[in-house]
Design a protein that fits this description.
By secondary structure, this protein is an alpha/beta fold. The chain is built from six helices and five strands, in the order H-E-H-E-H-E-H-E-H-E-H. It has a five-stranded parallel sheet with strand order 2-1-3-4-5, with helices on both faces. Strand 3, helix 4 and strand 4 form a beta-alpha-beta unit. The radius of gyration is 14 Å and the shape is globular.
């Protein structure tokens, strides 16, 4: 039973990870890579857009922090969705969804994960979003 649930968390998708804190980015990137995902790392929206221009065809999921310098995760997601409609997005933040909702940054009903999160939680969410 346990084997199968673990196995389903293995992916082959390419994920664009946008996180301005190096330590957090390393941890999340390692979690994803361990499960077989290909991870493109960006330290912020500008680098993310550059990577997207280079690799956009293959990127299936945008995993981005919400509160960043330059541009918030929601604005980044909107920009990328214009370049690739239908791309999946998972937002993450150390702030609760409630705080972010109060700021009006994220649209209702988006995929949101509060930091810090366990690897299993991240994997389950990523896998579910990719098959949805």
């Amino acid at each position: 039973e346990e084997m199968s649930s673990h196995h389903s968390a293995h992916g082959s998708a390419t994920i664009l990870l946008v996180e301005d804190e190096l330590d957090v980015r390393n941890v999340v990137s390692n979690m994803l890579a361990t499960c077989g995902y290909t991870v493109l790392e960006a330290n912020g929206p500008r680098e993310a857009l550059t990577l997207f221009e280079q690799h956009g065809e293959g990127i299936e999921l945008l995993l981005t922090d919400v509160i960043m310098p330059e541009m918030n995760g929601s604005e980044l997601s909107e920009t990328i969705m214009k370049m690739k409609p239908g791309i999946k997005t998972l937002f993450m933040s150390g702030y609760t969804a409630g705080v972010i909702d109060d700021k009006g940054i994220l649209p209702e009903g988006v995929n949101f994960l509060q930091k810090p999160f366990a690897p299993d939680t991240l994997m389950a969410r990523v896998a579910r979003i990719l098959i949805s």
